[in-house]
Amino acid sequence: MNANRKARTDALWPAIHFTVNGEGRTVNVPPMKRLLDVLREDLHLTGTKEGCGEGECGSCSVRMNDELVNSCLVPVLQAEGSDIQTVEGLALDGELNPLQEAFLHNGGAQCGICTPGMLMAAAQLLAHSPHPSEAEIREGLAGNLCRCTGFIRIFESVAAAAGASESEPTKEPVMEQTHHAR
Amino acid sequence: MRGNAEMHELVAPGSLGAVLDLLAAEPGQWTPIAGGTELMVAFSAGRLNAAKLVNLWGIPDLRTIDVTPQSVGLGAAATFLDLRKHAAINTEFPLLARAASWIGSVANQSRATLGGNLVNGSPAADSSPALLAYDAEIETISVRGRRKVPYSEFHTGYKRNVLASDELLYAIHLPRRFASHRQYLRKVGTRRAMAIAKVALGATALLEQGVIREIRLGAASLAPYPTRLKQTEAALLGQALTRETVPAARRALLAEVQPIDDIRSTAEYRRRVAVNLLEEFLLELRREELRP
């Protein structure tokens, strides 16, 4: 698309502002465009992957205003004013996040398609429960599917990252574990 | 066929009042969207039948949980994670907290709203059996004002409800009088997580000297919409739990429900499981009653 044509297309759509990985961004796109597609196509942040496109697999997980969301289910207009973290925002100044280190050292990644979503779900979990039990890890990652069947190593990676973290436990309201159908 | 974002209008008037004005100006033209866990799935698949959408996500008046001496009021856009984290829901309405934990995954629970679950109107809705068992009341809002409807009368047919074309679901109210009731909720699905119910039953009951003084039974996937099983309740009300009452209640339930065959299960399986869930609840009640 040449510059003139792009400018004309942009003028059709309202500007939507939000922060991605600490950086203010503005996009002019259809308000119903999926946050996933805006991240990948407009902001060229292709770390976030599309798996199922229907909220079942978690590949497109990002953190939005300190909530874990499937970016395939968020119309970008709903991201107006929000603070978004993608997998590209985990490493800081070239230093891998402890979670990324732990996935590397514990074989937590195989083909890699689920990995960005796994990392973001794990980051959300650790932000609220710095020292999660195994059950909490399993529940925190329950919406993220790995088709290389590497779940155990992924859970171990998250536990290792939690063990390595020096942060003190935060005071979170106690939430009962998922009550499954018996 | 993928959805095309350019084919759908989405506006964010910002305040609840502005949304209601829009719905009143063009009734029936606008589809409200909150967490998007239902509508965006349809959109991605290219089967979203809504040209104009109006945003409810981020409107503070709708994402509330208000505890008063009489009731707990849940804003229609309270998310299932909001419900799970709330102390009063966990202690006084544990069935609802449990149902909330069944909704998909953390990423789904942080976006999916209680109001969305009800307005979507799936016969298998996870929150419905608990709300029916707790005698929930629905509050609607429009520029014409607010009104209240018992939740048991909210659904009027498959994916149909009492909302007028200019109305929004505003809040869900739970009366705070179930502390001493026996409570039961069980969902039978294909697997433990991320699965839609084949059958679910929620129940509350109050016993006095072994006699059922009050009972509510709420069912999912046994009719075209979530329903209270009023005839089965009537068969149990005022009864003691005896060798005769339980089979009579099973017969009443079988006469009352209308499950169907679909991709998730069969009518016959649903009937069998439903009567077994009812019996499990009644036997639990009886065990509690016999306990010294």
Describe the overall structure.
The complex is a heterodimer of chains A (182) and B (292). Chain A is of the alpha+beta class and 182 residues long. Chain A has two domains: 12-89, Ubiquitin-like (UB roll), CATH 3.10.20.30; 98-164, DNA polymerase, domain 1 (Orthogonal Bundle). In chain A, 34% of the residues lie in helices and 13% in strands. Chain A is built from six helices and five strands. A five-stranded mixed sheet of chain A has the order 2-1-5-3-4, with helices on both faces. In chain A, strand 1 (15-20) and strand 2 (23-28) form a beta hairpin. Chain A is elongated. Chain A starts with a helix and ends in an 18-residue tail after the last helix. In chain A, 44% of the residues are buried. Residues 166-171 of chain A have low confidence and may be disordered. Chain B is of the alpha+beta class and 292 residues long. Chain B folds into three domains: 5-55; 60-175, Uridine Diphospho-n-acetylenolpyruvylglucosamine Reductase, domain 3 (2-Layer Sandwich); 182-290, Enolase-like, domain 1. Helices cover 33% and strands 26% of the residues of chain B. Chain B is built from eleven helices and 14 strands. In chain B, a hairpin with a 6-residue loop joins strand 13 (211-220) and strand 14 (227-228). Chain B starts with 8 loop residues before the first strand and ends with a helix. Classes of the chains: A alpha+beta (182), B alpha+beta (292). The interface between A and B is large, with 41 and 45 residues.
